[in-house]
Amino acid sequence: MKVSDYLSIPYMIEAEAVEGDDGEWCRRLSYPELADFKVDTLDVETGLRQLEVLRIREIIRQLRSGTKPPMPRPPLRNSDPEWLARNLGIWDEISGVLDLTEDQLARMH
Fold first, then answer.
1. Could you read off the pLDDT of 10-50 as tens digits, one per residue?
2. How is residue 45 annotated by DSSP?
3. Would you say 14 and 27 are in contact if contact means Cβ atoms under 8 Å apart?
4. Which one of 37, 64, 82, 95 is least enclosed by Cβ atoms within 10 Å?
5. What is the model's pTM?
């Protein structure tokens, strides 16, 4: 599989309302099927964008380390990781790796 295929795997988003230490409520977003990272946010749209950046970085981190990310569902055929990365402002981070296989990416580091 190519890196772009791994970035097209759909993961379930978990969202919950949580009370912070300061007594203020926020939304906590995460991808529990992928990794143990969370985004706490007042604005869900901003939080989803932050979560997507973390998802992309985590998948590439795992592939670079030689670990295949979980694949609870097959990659979506109509997904466009390039468009998403450009929209999120992280295209420069991943532009050279989308067409690599997981083995090629792992050998780079």
1. 999 999 999 988 999 999 999 999 999 999 999 999 999 99
2. H
3. no
4. 95
5. 0.93
